[in-house]
Amino acid sequence: MEIDTVLWSRLVTGLTLTFHVIFATVGVSVPLMIAIAEFVGIRKKDPHYILMAKRWTRGFIISVAVGVVTGTAIAMQLALVWPNFMKLAGNVVALPLFMEVFAFFFEAIFLGIYLYTWDRFRNPYLHWLLTIPIVAGAGMSAFFITTVNGFMNQPGGFMLEAGHFAAVNPIAAMLNTATPSKVFHVLTSAYLTGAALLAGIAAYTMLRKGATAYYKKSLKLMMGAMLVFGLLTTIAGDVSAKFLAEHQPEKLAAAEWHFETESGADLIFLGWLNAEREVIGALHLPKALSFLAFGNFNAEVKGLNEFPPDEHPPLLVHYLFDFMVSIGFVLLAVSVLYFLFVLWKKRNEYNRWLLGAIAACAPLAFLGVELGWFYAEVGRQPWIIRGYMRVEEAATSSPNVMPLFFVFLLLYIVLGVLCAVVLRRLFRNNPAEAEYERYMQSRNEQQPEAGERT
Amino acid sequence: MISYELIGITVLWLFLYGYLIVASIDFGAGFFAYYARLTKQDHLINRLISRYLSPVWEITNVFFVFFLVGIIGFFPDTAYYYGSSLLVPGSIAVILLAIRGSFYAFENYGSKESIVYLFLYGATGLLIPASLSVALTLSEGGFITEQSGVVSLAYLKLFTSPLSWSIVVLAIVSVLFISGSFLTFYASRAADQSALKLLRNYALFWSTPTIIAALTAFIYLSQHNERHFQNMMDLWWLLALSVGFFMLALWLLYSGRRYGLAFICVMLQFFCAFFAYGIGHYPYILDPFITIQEGATQESMGIALVIAFIGGLCLLIPSLVLVFKLFLFDADYVKGKK
């Protein structure tokens, strides 16, 4: 197959974003978990939780480094790979892009302070307060960048005059109709993923080395977060589906292989298509799609055949959608199961099978995030700005895009491997219990000295 | 009332200047750390360098992204011309920045010291300013061609141009000079005599090439872009001020006192030169394709950006002051007691 520069451009951007989204998700969610752990630790005067916050922060900073550099890469690639897109859309989306950097700046400053002031304040809450700008900055940057993506799906806040955007209203473009559901879904699923990651690490360690007080507390705290954000993500997913049905019916129809407009439409799970585009071997949930889309089992759902063939998204997105949704429910089910075990005294919540399932949730959650983004982005094809600019009009004309794909691929492999190696080295020979011992010892030694200082 | 596009370009120029200073400190420190290791003097300065750089490395990077996003926001045409022509050099800069940023964090928070890492840290410190300075060269015009809607970069012309090489040399030696004079100041705050002595030598050593490279670049500019050169000559007083600050900084460094003032002089020296260069460039952003007036974004967006900018500064300036208070002017922290 001949691959042209447009496809190479898409591959370069897809590659960078696929890699970045892992670290971006960690970057948005883990600060909240750190803030929760430190707060609980100060509140309960339990050094285990303080140590938890410290250890998470140490791992977090490594992933932030990769997140920062891949984020810089995207900022530059937007202009380098999609110059025509930025020339046109830059007039409308510059504000949220700019504010995203502000939010990130803010986060970066306080992260630096947080990291180097663990023992500098006498009142522990003062140090904890530093997490607020970090969590807020991370959330705000997710918000702003998601509004840009929302704009690409639901462009608004401008008039089109002779191929140029005129009468631009930056706020209206930012608060486009896609923004609320997208931001809600992005934030809840990121927090869910962060919780699943940290719970998974605790469960995995307990499986290998047995349950200790530190990991039991860590697991319980994060399973709680997983339950809360699992529920919120389910709601967010439902809101998003209803949004799609109303505003981007072709995306939902492609995800559901829903070709003919009909009332009381079935929800189709998995299966495959034959040459005549008939669905085979799928699980049909009668009328569930109508309910998912409009909250009414007999509502009419628009089919893909209503749209011109050259505006159909690839039908592959069906699988992306199905797996994303399944993963969401698996994560929720595992966290519910955990708390059922906790409540039901006869059962042991540190059961090997359950711990194994929790450990598996961590990679699954990241897979879910990736699949969700693939679905959102591939489902928007062939548009880069839906209804206004097609992808092939936006790409660079430079033939050098192809070698760059491989250079960046190599770079991300090196970064990914090094990141994993460094993280392993950080924690492998420094188990939480040993660090706890040292930590308590140094605290006891410091106590009289701290009293002297004014 | 000044037009919003002028406010925009002024703000962006200020940010680029900010990046020039903080990034130079960072890039130069990388080279000094590597060089000190080669000459077996690393024990003197490495701790000092990492103590300053660890809390601020992320901030340095954000300065850059800020400028990048800002210029595309205010002047979307820059994305089209620079984006199309800089695909390769820009991507190289991204990769170098990625290597540097991540390796820096890996080293600082994770792995053990290794000479390979230190080499990469030092080498990228010189290669990044070189690759970024290409954008400045391009802005002078004559290196970008546009034929039937396809923008491309005349590589051969770029690589054989004495102007582009003189700008590259200027970028590298300035980095070393700025970094050397800042670290001298930082060492004197830490009352670290041996580091102070070494870094002061570095700063003094790199001062001469800096001024020579500046003159050379200036001469080649006069041959390449007459208009820009003439504009700068009209701003002769700014250039004279710049040279004056340079002499003052050199004298202070040489006589070995008031290092803080010396570093401020270096900052002012570059401030004057940088603004003389920038103002002389007016009204072009990219000669001859983009002018400040025609390339600017919609008025409503421009005003929104200026408002967002002011709001953002109200958040940023107090936070930056806090960082400086905690890490730069807290004598106990600098000395390593905290």
Automatic annotation (TrEMBL), chain A:
Molecular-function GO term, any one: oxidoreductase activity, acting on diphenols and related substances as donors, oxygen as acceptor
GO cellular component, one term: cytochrome complex
Transmembrane portions of the chain: 17-40, 60-82, 94-116, 128-152, 183-207, 219-237, 316-341, 353-376, 401-423
Alphabetical UniProt keywords: Cell membrane, Electron transport, Heme, Iron, Membrane, Metal-binding, Transmembrane, Transmembrane helix, Transport
Protein topology in the membrane: Multi-pass membrane protein
Keyword field contains ATP-binding: no
UniProt cross-references to InterPro entries, sorted A to Z: Cyt-d_ubiquinol_oxidase_su_1
Biological process terms in GO annotation: aerobic electron transport chain
Subcellular location: Cell membrane
Any Pfam family: Cyt_bd_oxida_I
Family: Belongs to the cytochrome ubiquinol oxidase subunit 1 family.
PANTHER family for this protein: CYTOCHROME BD MENAQUINOL OXIDASE SUBUNIT I-RELATED, CYTOCHROME D UBIQUINOL OXIDASE
UniProt protein name: Cytochrome ubiquinol oxidase subunit I
Species name: Paenibacillus paeoniae
Organism taxonomic ancestry: Bacteria, Bacillati, Bacillota, Bacilli, Bacillales
TrEMBL record, chain B:
Localization per record: Cell membrane
Listed transmembrane segments: 6-35, 56-75, 81-103, 115-138, 163-187, 199-223, 235-254, 261-282, 302-328
UniProt keyword terms in alphabetical order: Cell membrane, Membrane, Transmembrane, Transmembrane helix
Pfam families in UniProt: Cyt_bd_oxida_II
Topology with respect to the bilayer: Multi-pass membrane protein
Protein name, per record: Cytochrome d ubiquinol oxidase subunit II
Family from the record: Belongs to the cytochrome ubiquinol oxidase subunit 2 family.
Any single GO CC term annotated in Swiss-Prot or TrEMBL for this entry: plasma membrane
UniProt-listed InterPro entries: Cyt-d_oxidase_su2
